[in-house]
Amino acid sequence: VIDQVNALGVEVDIVYNNAAIMTSHQSDIWQHSWEDWMQTMKTNVFAMYTICAAFVPKMAERGYGRVVNLSSGITKTPELAPYSASKWAVIKLTEDLAAHYEDTNVRINCLDPGWLRTDMGSQNAPNAVEAVLPGALVPALLENDGANGKAFSAL
Predict the structure, then answer these.
(1) Residue 116 pairs with which residues in a beta bridge?
(2) Cα 15 to the chain's mean position, in Å?
(3) What are the structural domains, with CATH classification, of the chain?
(4) Maximum CA pair distance of the chain?
(5) What is the DSSP string of 14-39?
(6) pTM here?
(7) Which of 5-12's residues contact partners 24+ apart within 8 Å by CB, and which partners?
(8) Fewest beta carbons less than 10 Å away: which of 56, 95, 119, 148?
(9) Measured between alpha carbons, how far is 35 from 109 in angstroms, rounded to an integer?
(10) DSSP letter for each residue of 42-84
């Protein structure tokens, strides 16, 4: 993705880091395999970091940028430990990146979209994807003195 965007020769002002996977539920927290942990962290955390590393320094050089990293409000869910741990890592990394770029016009925040009816979220989820779209725009449209390193809820 980074190479494709760079090949376009455009300046990136807004990044939404939305890629995520969730491994299967395990009834025992110790049943999650090492591969589950690695794949989840690679997709949910390391990919986010890589995208940020590719675009945020350039945003800071230009004096403007918005980054929205999708997190989760998931709590106390040992059957999904790799997923929930990865989403808490996203929150912490977002806070650290925001602190690093605090004196710039780059705003880096998290967005909890809520439990959505998607392939990953399941059809049992209470919220349609369309319901979160207005709230999902808020962190991308902040003023230069707006929130930085904060968590937003799309609902």
Answers:
(1) 127
(2) 10
(3) 12-153 (3.40.50.720)
(4) 49
(5) EEEE-----PPP-SSGGGS-HHHHHH
(6) 0.88
(7) 5/55, 6/54, 11/58, 11/62, 12/55, 12/58, 12/59, 12/65
(8) 119
(9) 29
(10) IIIIIHHHHHHHHHHHHHHHHT-EEEEEE-----S-GGGHHHH
- Total residues belonging to the chain: 155
pLDDT tens per residue across all 155 residues of the chain: 999 999 999 999 999 998 898 888 889 999 999 999 999 999 999 999 999 999 999 999 999 999 999 998 877 889 999 999 999 999 999 999 999 999 999 999 998 876 655 676 667 766 676 777 778 888 898 999 999 999 887 87
| Distance of alpha carbon 21 from alpha carbon 36, whole angstroms | 10
Catalytically active residues are 83
Read off the tokens for 112.
């909890």
The tokens of 88 are what? 């808490």
Q: List the one residue out of 125, 133, 23 whose CA is nearest residue 68.
A: 133
